[in-house]
Amino acid sequence: MRYHGLSSLQRGTIWVVLMVVVGAVIGATGPRAVGALADLAQVAPDRLPWVATRLVAFLSYFAIAGSVVYGLLLSTKVLDAIAHRPVSFALHQDLAAIGLGLAGVHAVLLGLDAKVPFSLADILVPFVAPYRPIWVGIGQLTLYLVAVVLASFYMRRRIGQRTWRLLHYLTFLSFAGATAHGILSGSDSGTAWAWWSYVGATAVVVFLTGYRVVTGIAAAGERASRPAAGVAAVPGSAPSPLGAPGPGVAAGARSEAPRPAPLVGARLEAPRPAPLVGPLDLRAPGRPTPGMPDRARPTP
């Protein structure tokens, strides 16, 4: 798919719609959130790290989900008509880095929470946390998987394209782990906005993954149906087995190898004359030499 880009009107419309949506969300939820944080700071200031870690956790999840979605859009070449591939690839990589960084901040804020304290070992070692150790451990493994995938971006030339692609399949596992971690260990999973956030992100990833698989199978079948290079298929005829005469060749007839085409523009050299035999030629002592006087001819 060729890059066509967006017109000025299209870009302006997208930015206006984006600003309207963001403004509407902030206007509808901002005052309520600020008021709730102010009340919490007066009543239980020690709970602020817990609120902050929940907020950062959702931001990290959205960044990781966005990186996976953008990677699928790249692989299906959906964005090639409106965005340059290097720009799209950089955004895909940057979203993964942002998600990993926010996940690290989320882990650090857990250590600052006084109600459910996390030690350094609880933060780094999977499945030993004091709070829902199984699902927290899955979140920790997800963090390490995202780190491996992100590191593969910077080591792509060293590890090779094939290994890089194999490591990239870990993004599906990391997304599944992040979703399970958020639903089964998050305290906000029961709210409608959190639940639909997880459902919406999962639905988009599943749809794009299915679309990628279907288009990949269709492309593979199209490549397999193409005839081999340099072989012209005769309509209505099946390929001949090895050693059997092809279409249009009578049985028992011997097929001749194709003659090479004459070289266009090549210079044809005249045949060289046979070399003259000298008078003292020992290989032909009695052979007369044309054009040589009789007295000069050697006697046998």
What best-fitting shape do the alpha-carbon axes yield?
globular
Largest beta sheet, briefly?
Answer: none
Query: How helix-rich are the residues, as a percent range?
Result: 55-70%
Structural class: mainly alpha
Q: For the record, give the distance between the C-alpha atoms at the N and C termini, rounded to a whole number.
A: 87 Å
Secondary-structure map:
Blueprint: H1 8-43, H2 48-75, H3 85-112, H4 120-124, H5 133-154, H6 156-168, H7 170-185, H8 192-225
Helix pairs in contact: 2-3, 2-7, 2-8, 3-5, 5-6, 5-7
Would you kindly provide a written description of the structure presented here, covering whatever features stand out?
The chain has 300 residues and is an all-alpha fold. The protein has two domains: 1-43; 47-222, no CATH class. Helices cover 61% and strands 0% of the residues. The protein has helices spanning 8-43, 48-75, 85-112, 120-124, 133-154, 156-168, 170-185, 192-225. The longest helix has 36 residues, at 8-43. It is globular. Mean pLDDT is 78; it is low at 240-253 and 277-287.
